[in-house]
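Hey Z.,

So I finally got round to the zinc ion thing we talked about over coffee. Here's the setup:
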Amino acid sequence: MYRFYNYAELFKPYEIIDYLRKSQSDDPLLTVEEILAKHEAILDEWDIKHLGALVPEENRFREIVSGETIKERPEINKVLRLIESPKYKAVKIVEPQRLTRGDLEDIGRIMKLLKHTNTYIITADRFSERLYDLHEEDDWNAFEAELKKGNDYLNYYKKIQKRGRDISLSQGNYIASVPPYGYEKIKVKEGKKEYPTLKENPDEANVVRMIFDMYGNQGMGRMSICYRLDELGIKPPKGEQWSATTLKEMLKNIHYIGKVKGNWRPTITIVEDGKFKKTRPQGNAENRLVYEGKHNGIISPELFERVQNRIGNNPRTKPTTKLRNPFATLLYCRNCGKVMVLKYFRDKQGNEKCAPRFSCIDQARCGAGSCTYAEISDLVCQTLEHSIEDFEICIKNDESDSSKLHAQLIKTLEKKLKELEAKELTQWEQQAHPDPSQRMPAEIFKQLNKKLLKEKEDVKQALRKAYESQPAPIDYKEKIKTFKDAIITLKDPAAEAVLKNELLKACIERIDYYREKPQRVQSSNKKSNWNNPAIELDVKLKV
Ligand SMILES: [Zn+2]
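And the result:
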Protein backbone atom coordinates (compact mmCIF):
# COMPACT_ATOMS: atom_id res chain seq x y z
CA MET A 1 0.00 0.00 0.00
CA TYR A 2 1.34 3.39 -0.91
CA ARG A 3 1.12 6.15 1.64
CA PHE A 4 1.91 9.81 1.42
CA TYR A 5 4.08 11.40 4.01
CA ASN A 6 5.05 14.89 4.87
CA TYR A 7 8.76 14.21 5.04
CA ALA A 8 9.66 17.64 6.38
CA GLU A 9 7.49 16.95 9.43
CA LEU A 10 8.99 13.51 9.98
CA PHE A 11 12.69 14.27 9.50
CA LYS A 12 15.24 17.01 9.91
CA PRO A 13 18.01 16.87 7.27
CA TYR A 14 20.65 15.83 9.85
CA GLU A 15 18.49 12.85 10.90
CA ILE A 16 18.90 11.22 7.52
CA ILE A 17 21.88 9.17 6.37
CA ASP A 18 22.52 8.93 2.64
CA TYR A 19 24.13 5.84 1.23
CA LEU A 20 25.44 5.61 -2.34
CA ARG A 21 27.02 2.81 -4.26
CA LYS A 22 27.61 1.47 -7.73
CA SER A 23 26.24 -1.96 -8.49
CA GLN A 24 26.60 -4.54 -11.24
CA SER A 25 23.39 -3.46 -12.90
CA ASP A 26 24.84 -0.02 -13.65
CA ASP A 27 26.09 0.90 -17.08
CA PRO A 28 29.50 -0.79 -17.25
CA LEU A 29 30.89 2.05 -19.34
CA LEU A 30 30.46 4.56 -16.52
CA THR A 31 33.10 4.93 -13.84
CA VAL A 32 32.24 4.66 -10.15
CA GLU A 33 32.65 8.44 -9.86
CA GLU A 34 30.26 9.11 -12.72
CA ILE A 35 27.60 6.83 -11.29
CA LEU A 36 27.92 8.24 -7.80
CA ALA A 37 27.70 11.78 -9.21
CA LYS A 38 24.46 10.82 -10.94
CA HIS A 39 23.10 9.44 -7.69
CA GLU A 40 24.15 12.49 -5.70
CA ALA A 41 22.06 14.59 -8.05
CA ILE A 42 19.02 12.37 -7.45
CA LEU A 43 19.46 12.54 -3.68
CA ASP A 44 19.98 16.32 -3.75
CA GLU A 45 16.86 16.78 -5.80
CA TRP A 46 14.87 14.79 -3.27
CA ASP A 47 16.27 16.82 -0.36
CA ILE A 48 15.29 20.13 -1.91
CA LYS A 49 11.86 18.89 -2.95
CA HIS A 50 10.88 17.30 0.38
CA LEU A 51 12.96 18.99 3.07
CA GLY A 52 13.87 22.29 1.50
CA ALA A 53 17.48 21.71 2.57
CA LEU A 54 20.31 19.29 1.88
CA VAL A 55 21.32 16.42 4.13
CA PRO A 56 24.68 17.46 5.63
CA GLU A 57 27.79 16.22 3.86
CA GLU A 58 29.01 14.21 6.87
CA ASN A 59 25.80 12.14 6.64
CA ARG A 60 26.58 11.05 3.13
CA PHE A 61 28.42 7.73 2.64
CA ARG A 62 29.84 6.73 -0.70
CA GLU A 63 30.89 3.16 -1.36
CA ILE A 64 33.90 3.17 -3.66
CA VAL A 65 34.65 -0.54 -3.58
CA SER A 66 31.99 -2.63 -5.23
CA GLY A 67 31.55 -5.68 -3.08
CA GLU A 68 28.48 -7.84 -3.37
CA THR A 69 28.21 -8.75 0.27
CA ILE A 70 28.03 -6.39 3.21
CA LYS A 71 31.30 -7.68 4.58
CA GLU A 72 33.05 -6.39 1.51
CA ARG A 73 31.72 -2.86 1.85
CA PRO A 74 33.33 -0.63 4.48
CA GLU A 75 30.89 2.28 4.13
CA ILE A 76 27.71 0.28 4.70
CA ASN A 77 29.27 -1.00 7.90
CA LYS A 78 29.73 2.58 9.09
CA VAL A 79 26.10 3.29 8.27
CA LEU A 80 24.90 0.20 10.13
CA ARG A 81 26.81 1.29 13.21
CA LEU A 82 25.45 4.86 13.06
CA ILE A 83 21.80 3.85 12.87
CA GLU A 84 22.13 2.30 16.32
CA SER A 85 22.07 5.87 17.60
CA PRO A 86 18.57 7.39 18.00
CA LYS A 87 19.99 10.56 16.46
CA TYR A 88 19.43 9.08 13.03
CA LYS A 89 15.93 8.22 11.86
CA ALA A 90 16.25 7.19 8.24
CA VAL A 91 18.59 5.85 5.61
CA LYS A 92 18.11 7.32 2.16
CA ILE A 93 19.13 5.46 -0.97
CA VAL A 94 18.40 5.84 -4.66
CA GLU A 95 16.63 2.49 -4.88
CA PRO A 96 16.33 -0.55 -2.57
CA GLN A 97 18.96 -2.64 -4.30
CA ARG A 98 21.62 -0.05 -3.52
CA LEU A 99 21.50 -1.23 0.06
CA THR A 100 22.35 -4.82 -0.73
CA ARG A 101 22.00 -7.32 -3.48
CA GLY A 102 24.13 -9.87 -1.76
CA ASP A 103 22.99 -13.19 -0.40
CA LEU A 104 19.80 -13.85 1.53
CA GLU A 105 21.63 -13.86 4.80
CA ASP A 106 22.79 -10.33 4.13
CA ILE A 107 19.28 -9.24 3.22
CA GLY A 108 17.84 -10.72 6.41
CA ARG A 109 20.52 -9.17 8.56
CA ILE A 110 20.27 -5.70 7.14
CA MET A 111 16.47 -5.64 7.33
CA LYS A 112 16.43 -6.75 10.95
CA LEU A 113 18.98 -4.12 11.87
CA LEU A 114 16.91 -1.40 10.25
CA LYS A 115 13.74 -2.60 11.92
CA HIS A 116 15.17 -2.96 15.43
CA THR A 117 16.82 0.43 15.30
CA ASN A 118 13.51 1.94 14.15
CA THR A 119 15.15 3.28 11.03
CA TYR A 120 13.03 4.27 8.09
CA ILE A 121 14.19 3.68 4.56
CA ILE A 122 13.69 6.34 1.93
CA THR A 123 14.12 5.58 -1.73
CA ALA A 124 14.72 8.77 -3.68
CA ASP A 125 14.58 7.68 -7.29
CA ARG A 126 11.65 9.42 -9.00
CA PHE A 127 10.19 6.13 -10.25
CA SER A 128 10.42 4.30 -6.97
CA GLU A 129 10.16 7.19 -4.52
CA ARG A 130 8.86 5.79 -1.27
CA LEU A 131 9.20 5.53 2.51
CA TYR A 132 9.46 2.09 4.09
CA ASP A 133 8.62 1.52 7.75
CA LEU A 134 9.79 -2.02 8.42
CA HIS A 135 7.46 -2.38 11.41
CA GLU A 136 4.64 -2.40 8.88
CA GLU A 137 4.20 -5.84 7.40
CA ASP A 138 3.35 -4.52 3.94
CA ASP A 139 6.46 -2.37 3.86
CA TRP A 140 8.62 -5.20 5.13
CA ASN A 141 7.39 -7.55 2.41
CA ALA A 142 7.68 -4.98 -0.32
CA PHE A 143 11.20 -4.02 0.63
CA GLU A 144 12.28 -7.63 0.98
CA ALA A 145 10.87 -8.43 -2.44
CA GLU A 146 12.86 -5.56 -3.97
CA LEU A 147 16.11 -6.74 -2.41
CA LYS A 148 15.57 -10.33 -3.49
CA LYS A 149 14.94 -9.18 -7.01
CA GLY A 150 18.45 -7.79 -7.05
CA ASN A 151 19.77 -10.99 -5.60
CA ASP A 152 18.04 -13.15 -8.20
CA TYR A 153 19.45 -11.07 -11.00
CA LEU A 154 22.96 -11.32 -9.62
CA ASN A 155 22.75 -15.08 -9.14
CA TYR A 156 21.35 -15.60 -12.58
CA TYR A 157 24.07 -13.49 -14.15
CA LYS A 158 26.81 -15.37 -12.32
CA LYS A 159 25.27 -18.74 -13.08
CA ILE A 160 25.00 -18.38 -16.83
CA GLN A 161 28.51 -17.05 -16.99
CA LYS A 162 29.84 -19.95 -15.00
CA ARG A 163 27.80 -22.61 -16.79
CA GLY A 164 29.31 -21.74 -20.14
CA ARG A 165 32.79 -21.92 -18.69
CA ASP A 166 32.15 -25.25 -16.98
CA ILE A 167 30.95 -26.87 -20.18
CA SER A 168 33.90 -25.59 -22.16
CA LEU A 169 36.27 -26.83 -19.47
CA SER A 170 34.73 -30.31 -19.33
CA GLN A 171 35.38 -30.60 -23.06
CA GLY A 172 39.07 -30.12 -22.35
CA ASN A 173 39.37 -26.55 -23.58
CA TYR A 174 41.76 -24.08 -22.04
CA ILE A 175 39.53 -21.29 -20.77
CA ALA A 176 41.85 -19.13 -18.67
CA SER A 177 43.20 -16.01 -20.32
CA VAL A 178 46.92 -16.44 -19.71
CA PRO A 179 48.58 -19.66 -20.93
CA PRO A 180 50.89 -21.51 -18.55
CA TYR A 181 54.63 -21.01 -19.16
CA GLY A 182 55.68 -23.48 -21.88
CA TYR A 183 52.52 -23.04 -23.92
CA GLU A 184 50.79 -20.61 -26.21
CA LYS A 185 47.05 -20.17 -26.28
CA ILE A 186 45.56 -20.93 -29.69
CA LYS A 187 42.11 -21.30 -31.26
CA VAL A 188 41.46 -24.46 -33.22
CA LYS A 189 38.65 -24.73 -35.76
CA GLU A 190 36.56 -27.85 -35.57
CA GLY A 191 33.84 -27.80 -38.19
CA LYS A 192 31.96 -24.57 -37.61
CA LYS A 193 33.08 -24.25 -34.03
CA GLU A 194 36.26 -22.89 -32.62
CA TYR A 195 37.76 -23.94 -29.33
CA PRO A 196 40.60 -22.47 -27.25
CA THR A 197 43.47 -24.76 -26.35
CA LEU A 198 47.22 -24.82 -25.79
CA LYS A 199 50.14 -25.34 -28.14
CA GLU A 200 53.68 -26.08 -27.03
CA ASN A 201 56.12 -23.18 -27.18
CA PRO A 202 59.27 -25.22 -27.95
CA ASP A 203 61.85 -23.04 -26.19
CA GLU A 204 59.79 -22.55 -23.05
CA ALA A 205 58.70 -26.18 -23.03
CA ASN A 206 62.34 -27.24 -22.93
CA VAL A 207 62.89 -25.07 -19.90
CA VAL A 208 59.89 -26.76 -18.26
CA ARG A 209 61.42 -30.17 -19.03
CA MET A 210 64.72 -29.03 -17.61
CA ILE A 211 63.07 -27.84 -14.38
CA PHE A 212 61.17 -31.10 -13.86
CA ASP A 213 64.32 -33.08 -14.61
CA MET A 214 66.44 -31.10 -12.16
CA TYR A 215 63.83 -31.36 -9.41
CA GLY A 216 62.37 -34.81 -10.03
CA ASN A 217 65.37 -36.75 -11.36
CA GLN A 218 68.40 -35.00 -9.99
CA GLY A 219 67.01 -34.03 -6.62
CA MET A 220 68.16 -30.42 -6.88
CA GLY A 221 66.56 -27.93 -4.48
CA ARG A 222 64.30 -25.22 -5.79
CA MET A 223 66.76 -22.44 -4.97
CA SER A 224 69.63 -24.16 -6.77
CA ILE A 225 67.38 -24.55 -9.81
CA CYS A 226 66.56 -20.83 -9.70
CA TYR A 227 70.25 -19.91 -9.58
CA ARG A 228 70.99 -22.26 -12.45
CA LEU A 229 68.22 -20.84 -14.66
CA ASP A 230 69.32 -17.26 -13.92
CA GLU A 231 72.89 -18.19 -14.74
CA LEU A 232 71.79 -19.57 -18.08
CA GLY A 233 70.12 -16.28 -18.92
CA ILE A 234 66.66 -17.91 -19.09
CA LYS A 235 63.95 -15.36 -18.31
CA PRO A 236 61.21 -16.37 -15.84
CA PRO A 237 57.50 -16.03 -16.76
CA LYS A 238 57.33 -12.86 -14.66
CA GLY A 239 60.01 -10.48 -13.40
CA GLU A 240 63.73 -10.71 -13.83
CA GLN A 241 64.77 -13.61 -11.63
CA TRP A 242 63.39 -17.05 -10.94
CA SER A 243 61.84 -17.59 -7.53
CA ALA A 244 61.11 -20.70 -5.51
CA THR A 245 57.40 -19.81 -5.54
CA THR A 246 57.28 -19.60 -9.33
CA LEU A 247 58.99 -22.97 -9.53
CA LYS A 248 56.58 -24.54 -7.06
CA GLU A 249 53.57 -23.32 -9.04
CA MET A 250 55.09 -24.75 -12.19
CA LEU A 251 56.01 -28.07 -10.61
CA LYS A 252 52.38 -28.50 -9.50
CA ASN A 253 50.79 -27.36 -12.74
CA ILE A 254 48.76 -30.23 -14.18
CA HIS A 255 48.56 -28.59 -17.61
CA TYR A 256 52.03 -30.04 -18.14
CA ILE A 257 50.56 -33.54 -18.21
CA GLY A 258 47.84 -32.55 -20.66
CA LYS A 259 45.01 -31.83 -18.25
CA VAL A 260 42.81 -28.79 -17.68
CA LYS A 261 41.44 -27.64 -14.37
CA GLY A 262 38.72 -25.47 -12.96
CA ASN A 263 37.59 -24.19 -9.58
CA TRP A 264 41.18 -24.71 -8.63
CA ARG A 265 41.73 -21.56 -6.67
CA PRO A 266 38.67 -19.33 -6.95
CA THR A 267 39.29 -15.68 -6.19
CA ILE A 268 37.73 -14.59 -2.94
CA THR A 269 37.80 -11.31 -1.06
CA ILE A 270 39.23 -11.05 2.41
CA VAL A 271 39.75 -8.17 4.80
CA GLU A 272 43.32 -7.55 5.88
CA ASP A 273 44.37 -4.55 7.96
CA GLY A 274 40.99 -2.95 7.27
CA LYS A 275 41.49 -3.24 3.50
CA PHE A 276 39.85 -5.55 1.03
CA LYS A 277 42.12 -7.91 -0.81
CA LYS A 278 41.37 -10.43 -3.49
CA THR A 279 43.18 -13.68 -2.83
CA ARG A 280 43.20 -17.12 -4.34
CA PRO A 281 43.53 -19.60 -1.51
CA GLN A 282 44.07 -23.28 -2.18
CA GLY A 283 40.67 -24.52 -3.28
CA ASN A 284 38.68 -27.16 -1.52
CA ALA A 285 39.80 -30.55 -2.83
CA GLU A 286 36.25 -31.73 -3.56
CA ASN A 287 35.42 -28.67 -5.61
CA ARG A 288 38.32 -29.11 -7.96
CA LEU A 289 37.47 -30.02 -11.50
CA VAL A 290 40.09 -31.80 -13.57
CA TYR A 291 39.53 -32.96 -17.13
CA GLU A 292 41.62 -34.45 -19.91
CA GLY A 293 42.71 -31.46 -21.96
CA LYS A 294 42.79 -31.21 -25.72
CA HIS A 295 46.43 -30.19 -25.60
CA ASN A 296 49.53 -32.38 -25.37
CA GLY A 297 51.48 -32.74 -22.16
CA ILE A 298 55.11 -31.69 -21.83
CA ILE A 299 56.04 -33.92 -18.91
CA SER A 300 55.52 -37.66 -18.50
CA PRO A 301 52.91 -38.63 -15.88
CA GLU A 302 55.56 -40.71 -14.05
CA LEU A 303 57.96 -37.81 -13.64
CA PHE A 304 55.09 -35.52 -12.66
CA GLU A 305 53.98 -37.99 -10.00
CA ARG A 306 57.51 -38.21 -8.61
CA VAL A 307 57.71 -34.44 -8.42
CA GLN A 308 54.34 -34.26 -6.61
CA ASN A 309 55.56 -36.74 -4.04
CA ARG A 310 58.64 -34.68 -3.41
CA ILE A 311 56.70 -31.44 -3.11
CA GLY A 312 54.16 -33.13 -0.81
CA ASN A 313 57.02 -34.09 1.46
CA ASN A 314 57.73 -30.47 2.24
CA PRO A 315 56.75 -29.53 5.76
CA ARG A 316 53.80 -27.19 6.07
CA THR A 317 54.77 -23.80 7.34
CA LYS A 318 51.97 -21.51 8.30
CA PRO A 319 52.71 -18.01 7.07
CA THR A 320 52.74 -16.70 10.61
CA THR A 321 54.86 -19.39 12.23
CA LYS A 322 58.19 -19.72 10.56
CA LEU A 323 59.79 -23.12 10.25
CA ARG A 324 62.40 -23.32 12.97
CA ASN A 325 63.71 -26.82 12.53
CA PRO A 326 66.17 -27.28 9.63
CA PHE A 327 65.73 -31.07 9.96
CA ALA A 328 61.93 -31.04 9.71
CA THR A 329 60.57 -34.15 7.92
CA LEU A 330 64.10 -35.58 7.79
CA LEU A 331 64.99 -36.72 11.28
CA TYR A 332 63.31 -39.75 12.89
CA CYS A 333 63.80 -41.72 16.08
CA ARG A 334 65.17 -45.16 15.25
CA ASN A 335 63.79 -46.60 18.46
CA CYS A 336 60.10 -45.96 17.74
CA GLY A 337 60.03 -44.53 14.20
CA LYS A 338 58.39 -41.26 15.22
CA VAL A 339 59.71 -37.81 14.35
CA MET A 340 62.36 -35.98 16.31
CA VAL A 341 61.34 -32.53 17.42
CA LEU A 342 63.52 -29.52 18.11
CA LYS A 343 62.87 -27.66 21.34
CA TYR A 344 64.09 -24.21 22.19
CA PHE A 345 64.49 -23.14 25.79
CA ARG A 346 63.96 -19.45 26.31
CA ASP A 347 63.10 -17.27 29.27
CA LYS A 348 60.38 -14.64 29.23
CA GLN A 349 62.70 -12.09 27.68
CA GLY A 350 63.35 -14.47 24.81
CA ASN A 351 66.95 -15.22 25.82
CA GLU A 352 68.22 -18.72 25.37
CA LYS A 353 68.36 -20.55 28.70
CA CYS A 354 70.20 -23.53 27.26
CA ALA A 355 71.08 -24.93 23.88
CA PRO A 356 68.17 -26.18 21.71
CA ARG A 357 67.73 -29.96 21.82
CA PHE A 358 66.29 -32.70 19.69
CA SER A 359 64.15 -35.34 21.29
CA CYS A 360 61.76 -38.03 20.15
CA ILE A 361 58.23 -36.61 19.98
CA ASP A 362 57.10 -39.53 22.14
CA GLN A 363 60.11 -39.46 24.43
CA ALA A 364 58.14 -40.27 27.57
CA ARG A 365 57.12 -43.64 26.19
CA CYS A 366 60.02 -44.34 23.87
CA GLY A 367 62.83 -43.44 26.26
CA ALA A 368 65.48 -42.59 23.68
CA GLY A 369 68.01 -40.04 24.89
CA SER A 370 67.98 -36.50 23.54
CA CYS A 371 70.86 -34.49 22.13
CA THR A 372 71.69 -30.92 21.25
CA TYR A 373 70.98 -29.37 17.89
CA ALA A 374 74.71 -28.76 17.39
CA GLU A 375 75.52 -32.44 17.85
CA ILE A 376 73.16 -33.48 15.05
CA SER A 377 74.18 -30.62 12.81
CA ASP A 378 77.92 -31.44 13.17
CA LEU A 379 77.40 -35.13 12.50
CA VAL A 380 75.30 -34.47 9.42
CA CYS A 381 77.90 -32.03 8.07
CA GLN A 382 80.58 -34.67 8.53
CA THR A 383 78.51 -37.22 6.64
CA LEU A 384 77.97 -34.79 3.78
CA GLU A 385 81.67 -33.95 3.68
CA HIS A 386 82.56 -37.65 3.43
CA SER A 387 80.09 -38.06 0.57
CA ILE A 388 81.68 -35.20 -1.32
CA GLU A 389 85.00 -37.01 -1.12
CA ASP A 390 83.29 -40.13 -2.48
CA PHE A 391 81.76 -38.18 -5.34
CA GLU A 392 85.09 -36.70 -6.26
CA ILE A 393 86.52 -40.18 -6.60
CA CYS A 394 83.70 -41.58 -8.68
CA ILE A 395 83.19 -38.81 -11.23
CA LYS A 396 82.91 -40.82 -14.37
CA ASN A 397 81.34 -40.49 -17.79
CA ASP A 398 77.68 -40.96 -18.31
CA GLU A 399 75.10 -39.17 -20.48
CA SER A 400 72.37 -37.78 -18.30
CA ASP A 401 69.07 -36.32 -19.31
CA SER A 402 70.01 -32.92 -18.08
CA SER A 403 73.11 -32.80 -20.27
CA LYS A 404 70.91 -33.52 -23.28
CA LEU A 405 68.56 -30.72 -22.39
CA HIS A 406 71.49 -28.49 -21.76
CA ALA A 407 72.88 -29.29 -25.20
CA GLN A 408 69.50 -28.39 -26.64
CA LEU A 409 69.56 -25.06 -24.91
CA ILE A 410 73.03 -24.38 -26.32
CA LYS A 411 71.75 -25.24 -29.78
CA THR A 412 68.84 -22.80 -29.42
CA LEU A 413 71.18 -20.06 -28.32
CA GLU A 414 73.63 -20.78 -31.14
CA LYS A 415 70.82 -20.62 -33.66
CA LYS A 416 69.66 -17.29 -32.23
CA LEU A 417 73.21 -15.94 -32.50
CA LYS A 418 73.45 -16.98 -36.15
CA GLU A 419 70.12 -15.27 -36.88
CA LEU A 420 71.31 -12.07 -35.27
CA GLU A 421 74.55 -12.17 -37.23
CA ALA A 422 72.64 -12.60 -40.47
CA LYS A 423 70.39 -9.70 -39.51
CA GLU A 424 73.42 -7.54 -38.83
CA LEU A 425 74.85 -8.33 -42.23
CA THR A 426 71.58 -7.38 -43.93
CA GLN A 427 71.53 -4.10 -42.09
CA TRP A 428 75.04 -3.25 -43.26
CA GLU A 429 74.32 -4.31 -46.83
CA GLN A 430 71.30 -2.08 -46.93
CA GLN A 431 73.30 0.77 -45.52
CA ALA A 432 75.93 0.32 -48.24
CA HIS A 433 73.33 0.40 -51.02
CA PRO A 434 74.66 2.24 -54.11
CA ASP A 435 71.46 4.28 -54.32
CA PRO A 436 71.44 6.60 -51.27
CA SER A 437 67.63 6.83 -51.33
CA GLN A 438 67.49 3.11 -50.52
CA ARG A 439 69.56 3.60 -47.39
CA MET A 440 68.19 4.17 -43.93
CA PRO A 441 68.65 7.58 -42.32
CA ALA A 442 72.02 7.45 -40.56
CA GLU A 443 70.53 8.10 -37.11
CA ILE A 444 68.01 5.27 -37.41
CA PHE A 445 70.64 2.88 -38.69
CA LYS A 446 72.84 3.77 -35.74
CA GLN A 447 70.01 3.02 -33.28
CA LEU A 448 69.00 -0.26 -34.93
CA ASN A 449 72.57 -1.40 -35.13
CA LYS A 450 73.18 -0.53 -31.50
CA LYS A 451 70.10 -2.48 -30.42
CA LEU A 452 71.16 -5.46 -32.45
CA LEU A 453 74.70 -5.45 -31.05
CA LYS A 454 73.29 -5.34 -27.53
CA GLU A 455 71.01 -8.29 -28.28
CA LYS A 456 73.95 -10.18 -29.75
CA GLU A 457 76.06 -9.49 -26.69
CA ASP A 458 73.27 -10.83 -24.41
CA VAL A 459 72.98 -14.04 -26.37
CA LYS A 460 76.77 -14.46 -26.39
CA GLN A 461 76.85 -13.93 -22.65
CA ALA A 462 74.15 -16.58 -22.12
CA LEU A 463 76.00 -18.94 -24.42
CA ARG A 464 79.26 -18.48 -22.52
CA LYS A 465 77.46 -19.29 -19.28
CA ALA A 466 75.76 -22.26 -20.90
CA TYR A 467 79.12 -23.65 -22.09
CA GLU A 468 80.65 -23.10 -18.68
CA SER A 469 77.88 -24.72 -16.72
CA GLN A 470 77.46 -27.68 -19.01
CA PRO A 471 76.63 -30.43 -16.53
CA ALA A 472 79.20 -33.12 -15.89
CA PRO A 473 78.10 -36.57 -16.93
CA ILE A 474 75.73 -38.03 -14.32
CA ASP A 475 76.17 -34.75 -12.51
CA TYR A 476 78.46 -35.74 -9.70
CA LYS A 477 79.74 -32.21 -10.00
CA GLU A 478 76.21 -30.97 -9.47
CA LYS A 479 75.84 -33.25 -6.46
CA ILE A 480 79.02 -31.88 -4.98
CA LYS A 481 77.74 -28.36 -5.47
CA THR A 482 74.39 -29.22 -3.88
CA PHE A 483 76.07 -30.90 -0.91
CA LYS A 484 78.51 -28.04 -0.46
CA ASP A 485 75.63 -25.55 -0.54
CA ALA A 486 73.91 -27.51 2.19
CA ILE A 487 77.01 -27.69 4.38
CA ILE A 488 77.84 -24.01 4.06
CA THR A 489 74.25 -23.01 4.79
CA LEU A 490 73.88 -25.43 7.68
CA LYS A 491 77.00 -24.00 9.29
CA ASP A 492 75.82 -20.43 8.79
CA PRO A 493 74.00 -19.34 11.96
CA ALA A 494 72.36 -16.46 10.10
CA ALA A 495 70.77 -18.63 7.41
CA GLU A 496 67.04 -19.26 7.77
CA ALA A 497 65.81 -22.66 8.87
CA VAL A 498 63.54 -22.91 5.80
CA LEU A 499 66.50 -22.55 3.49
CA LYS A 500 68.61 -25.02 5.47
CA ASN A 501 65.73 -27.47 5.34
CA GLU A 502 65.31 -27.11 1.60
CA LEU A 503 69.02 -27.60 0.93
CA LEU A 504 69.28 -30.56 3.29
CA LYS A 505 66.39 -32.23 1.56
CA ALA A 506 68.20 -31.90 -1.74
CA CYS A 507 70.94 -34.15 -0.32
CA ILE A 508 69.25 -36.32 2.27
CA GLU A 509 66.31 -38.70 2.07
CA ARG A 510 66.02 -39.51 5.76
CA ILE A 511 68.01 -39.66 8.98
CA ASP A 512 67.38 -42.22 11.70
CA TYR A 513 68.67 -41.27 15.10
CA TYR A 514 69.43 -43.29 18.17
CA ARG A 515 70.94 -42.59 21.54
CA GLU A 516 70.59 -44.51 24.75
CA LYS A 517 69.07 -42.70 27.68
CA PRO A 518 71.88 -41.12 29.72
CA GLN A 519 72.36 -42.74 33.15
CA ARG A 520 73.59 -41.32 36.44
CA VAL A 521 76.99 -42.75 37.29
CA GLN A 522 79.10 -42.44 40.40
CA SER A 523 82.45 -40.90 39.69
CA SER A 524 85.60 -41.46 41.75
CA ASN A 525 85.11 -38.31 43.85
CA LYS A 526 81.64 -39.64 44.85
CA LYS A 527 79.87 -36.85 42.98
CA SER A 528 77.17 -38.27 40.80
CA ASN A 529 77.37 -37.49 37.11
CA TRP A 530 75.67 -38.31 33.80
CA ASN A 531 77.23 -40.70 31.33
CA ASN A 532 77.35 -39.66 27.71
CA PRO A 533 76.03 -42.37 25.33
CA ALA A 534 77.18 -42.14 21.73
CA ILE A 535 74.82 -40.79 19.08
CA GLU A 536 74.07 -43.12 16.18
CA LEU A 537 72.87 -41.64 12.91
CA ASP A 538 71.86 -43.55 9.79
CA VAL A 539 71.87 -40.98 7.03
CA LYS A 540 70.20 -42.04 3.82
CA LEU A 541 71.53 -39.82 1.08
CA LYS A 542 69.94 -38.92 -2.20
CA VAL A 543 72.43 -40.21 -4.71
ZN1 LIG B 1 61.23 -42.57 19.87
